[in-house]
Amino acid sequence: MANSKGFTLVELIVAMGIFVVIMAMAGYGFERVIATTGQQSRSAQSNFEGVVGLEMLRYDIEHAGYGVAWTFQNYSSEIKFRNLGGTTDHELIADANAPLDGFDSTTLNATRAKNIQPFAAGTATKEVNHTAVTNAAGGPDYLVIRSTVSSLDDSARKWSYVNYSADSSSNLSYMKHWDNGDNLSSNDRIITVLSTFTTDGKEKKILLQDGADNFELNLTGTGAMPAGDAFKPASPADIVVAYGIRSAAASALRMPYNRTDYYVTRPDSGMPTNCNPGTGILYKDMVSHATGGFETPYPLMDCIGDMQVDFEYDPNDDGIVTHLPPALLTAKTAEEMRLHLKNIRIYILTHEGKMDKSYRYPGDSIHVGDPNKASSGRTLTSSEMSTLFSSNWRNYRWKIYTMVIRPKNLAQ
Question: Which stretches are transmembrane (predicted)?
Answer without folding.
Answer: 12-30
